[in-house]
Design brief:
Shape: globular
CATH topology: Rossmann fold
Strand order of the largest sheet: 2-1-3-4
Largest sheet: 4 strands, parallel
Radius of gyration: 15 Å
CATH superfamily: Response regulator
Distance between the termini: 23 Å
Length: about 180
């Protein structure tokens, strides 16, 4: 693993909530060690307003967030990724582009907060829970001694993170 900044890509089908939230968290928790990006296989064209409200309320700068295609990161001039994580089951089952540099991958599936229904407060609670689950996973990730772990050991740890509290069934079924 590189000694400098690691580039991490979070993927979700629509790039409207989970992947954007993960990008925000890693850029905060991993400042100086990690640089996070997010994208989708079928971007919705907008970031979910509940995600933006929640992130803004937690002090994140949301001005640069947008829903974008993973194609932006598969072509020439795109950053080389050290890690690529899927955070939704649909994206995990799709055929991803070939990422230069053979990044390590893992599936960290969690339920889609965009499907929440109910009052504004109930929906906000679902988005807050999504943030909490991603914060826990990313917090464990940034504490890994990446440079000193063998690739196979690191891959195992990444899969363990994906099976943490709140993981989707697909994530817990990982070998």
């Amino acid at each position: 693993m590189p000694d400098g900044t690691c580039n991490v890509l979070f993927l979700c089908t629509h790039n409207s909530a989970r992947s954007v939230i993960a990008e925000a968290i890693l850029n905060k928790l991993g400042r100086g060690r990690f640089r996070a990006f997010s994208a989708g296989s079928q971007p919705s064209g907008r970031v979910n307003p509940h995600a933006l409200r929640m992130l803004e309320g937690l002090g994140y700068d949301v001005s640069g967030f947008r829903s974008k295609s993973w194609d932006e990161f598969a072509g020439p001039g795109a950053p080389a990724f050290d890690f690529v994580f899927t955070v939704c089951d649909d994206a995990a089952s799709e055929t991803c582009p070939v990422w230069p540099g053979q990044p390590m991958t893992a599936h960290w599936g969690i339920p889609d907060p965009s499907r929440a229904t109910g009052t504004e407060a109930e929906i906000a609670n679902v988005f807050n829970e999504t943030h909490r689950m991603l914060w826990m996973r990313i917090g464990v990730f940034v504490e890994l001694p990446i440079a000193s772990l063998e690739r196979l050991t690191l891959q195992g740890r990444l899969k363990e993170i994906g099976r943490m509290d709140g993981a989707t069934r697909r994530a817990t079924d990982q070998a």
